[in-house]
């Protein structure tokens, strides 16, 4: 697998990481996601890591980079589905993921992103995969 699918849902992009991220795949995801934020003028990025059981400092740094670059492009980042062991590991590694909000599941993550949208920005019906 060379790419992780990025889904466009209204003003948001969603990524569900279903495999262990090796370095090249993580870097590809970072580049593809930032390109998609720019291309679609996305206002939010939701990253579902519920299938991720192990995280290392490289993956933590990639998630932080995605959040920082998205913020520069005017998009919020929310991570959902984090397992307790992953949260513990991130803190033990000294990677608190500043600038990234978290939610328990995709539904709550989407609600969090929706709250960040300006009232005048209606949802688009154009759902697609990047």
Structure, explained:
There is one protein chain. The longest helix is centred in the first third of the chain and has 18 residues, at 23-40. The chain has one domain (6-115): 2-Layer Sandwich (Transcription Regulator spoIIAA), CATH 3.30.750. The model has no long low-confidence stretch (mean pLDDT 88). The protein is globular, with a radius of gyration of 14 Å. Helix 1 packs parallel to helix 2. Strand 2 (12-16), helix 1 (23-40) and strand 3 (44-48) form a beta-alpha-beta unit. The chain is 42% helix and 18% strand. The protein is built from 4 helices and 6 strands. A 6-stranded mixed beta sheet has the order 5-4-3-2-1-6, sandwiched between helices. By secondary structure, the chain is an alpha/beta fold.
TL;DR of this structure?
With 130 residues, the protein is of the alpha/beta class.
Question: Based on the structure given, which CATH architecture is correct?
Answer: 2-Layer Sandwich
Could you please say which CATH topology applies here? Answer: Transcription Regulator spoIIAA
Counted by DSSP, the helix tally is 4
Q: What separation lies between the terminal Cα atoms?
A: 15 Å
Secondary structural class: alpha/beta
Major sheet, described briefly?
A: 6 strands, mixed
What characteristic shape results from the CA principal axes?
globular
- Approximately how much beta-strand content do the residues carry? 15-25%
Strand order of the largest sheet: 5-4-3-2-1-6
Residue runs with pLDDT of under 50 for 5 or more positions: none
- Give the fraction of residues assigned to helices: 40-55%
What is the average per-residue confidence, as pLDDT, rounded to a whole number?
Answer: 88
CATH C-level category: Alpha Beta
* E-strand count: 6
Order of helices and strands: EEHEHEHEHE
What name goes with the CATH superfamily?
Answer: STAS domain
Mind telling me the C-alpha Rg?
14 Å
As for the number of domains, it is: 1
